[in-house]
Amino acid sequence: MRITFKKVIKTSILLIAVCVFSVLFCWDKTTPAESLQTLQDGHGADGPLVESLRGDLEGSEEEIRRNQRSAKSFSPDADLINAIGNPQIQDDKINFKDFPKKSKKKSDDEATELDDIFISIKTTSSFHESRMQLLLDTWISKCRKQTYIFTDASDFSLIEKMPDGHVINTNCPESHYRKSLCCKMSKELDFFIDSNKRWFCHVDDDNYLNTDQLLQLLQKYNHTENWYLGKPSLSHPLEIQSRSREGQKVAFWFATGGAGFCISKALGIAMVPEAGGGKLIKVGDSIRLPDDCTIGYIINHILKVDLTRVDLFHSHLESQFRIQDPKKHITLSYNEQNVASVPGFSLKDDPTRFKSVHCKLYPSEEMCAGL
Q1: In this structure, are strands 199-204 and 208-209 parallel, antiparallel, or unpaired?
Q2: pLDDT tens digit string along 215-259?
Q3: Which DSSP category does 353 fall into?
Q4: Which SS3 state, helix, strand or coil, does residue 292 take?
């Protein structure tokens, strides 16, 4: 049989076409699972890609549980966790490109920012419309996201003025006695520990807080070390009778709560065995002292951590009229005629001088337009 050049060309083209068709046919039969395994092998994955993603999400869920407070909290992973745990939602309907990226954990070496501070205000329902409204109109407006209000009753008018979960009804007694004060302080401390923030700073509802000056102070200290910052109201340690050793006395320093004080994250964690989960109330009962004294007793006497005196904190027990430049101070207070000597609004319109102080610090605020 005679083979011509044309027949060779035709045969070659036919064979090539058959080979191409076979390759395409085999590729189409490759299962999604085989394709997924090939992707994993190419990236050095040890296990299935979907399980790896679910493991990350389970870690996020655990993190959410760990950081969750009794107040409402939000996590962008929550809906995705629920979706993957729901058998009615198929894997092929989940777009993994839409998964939120985890935010990097802030290094302890990075500078402290306002968002690293848990600002806690202790109040009572009878002061919601008077004292709390004044704070909302002034300094809270500059740090609403970082501020938490601890009170003793539900007040929807107050709740709607703050971010979700930032007004906490402690269900503590509505009084200014030891049990009520220690009850609220106990809740404040527990919420701070659960927040995982660097600093716990407590103020009362008759304090003006200069957050700029507060931040400058805290940036000088390491939150991973034990720091108790505040101002004592006494010139000497407080002496009480020992509850465990009859006839002996115990002496310790405490920062007065009426001026405000701050506790580092490390110290807050160290306090948990003695004060966490409501134990602070029991300690207060045992020494028969209010909340700020109980805090000092636990820190200075039990944990042997010194109080670092900061004279920029001020309570109503001090002469406020000596304060003329609020920019240099962290907290101010008031008590009847005992107010800061700051020009601005009339005494009738601003008897506490807090509005005038606020306009001194933030003159561009709308409320300051008439000054």
Answers
A1: unpaired
A2: 999 999 999 999 999 999 999 999 999 877 888 899 999 999 999
A3: S
A4: helix
Buried b (16+ CB within 10 A) or exposed e, 84-117: beeeeeeeeeeeeeeeeeeeeeeeeeeebeeebb
- Let me know if residue 104 belongs to a domain: no
What secondary structure does DSSP assign to 60-84, as a single string? Answer: HHHHHHHH--SS----TTHHHHHHH
DSSP strand pairing (228-230 vs 261-264): antiparallel
pLDDT digits (tens, 9 = 90+) for 345-360: 999 999 999 999 999 9
Tell me, yes or no, whether 173 and 87 share the same domain: no
Host domain of residue 73: 5-98
- Round to whole Å and give the CA distance between 186 and 197: 17
Q: Distance from first CA to last CA of the chain, Å, rounded?
A: 113
Q: Which residues pair with 243 in a beta bridge?
A: none
Provide Rg for the chain, Cα atoms: 31
Report how far residue 64's alpha carbon sits from residue 76's, in angstroms, rounded to the nearest whole number: 10
8 A C-beta contact, residue 200 and residue 223: no
* Cβ atoms 198, 106 nearer than 8 A: no
Q: Is residue 111 part of a domain?
A: no
One domain for residues 146 and 90: no
DSSP 298-336: IIIIIS-PPPEE-TT---TTS-GGG---GGG-SEE--BT
Q: What φ, ψ does residue 127 adopt, rounded to 5°?
A: -110, 10
108 as an active site residue: the answer is no
Tally the domains of the chain.
2
Among 205, 292, 306, 349, the one annotated catalytic: 292
pTM: predicted TM-score of the whole model, two decimal places: 0.71
Spatial distance between the Cα atoms of 149 and 129, rounded to a whole number of angstroms: 14
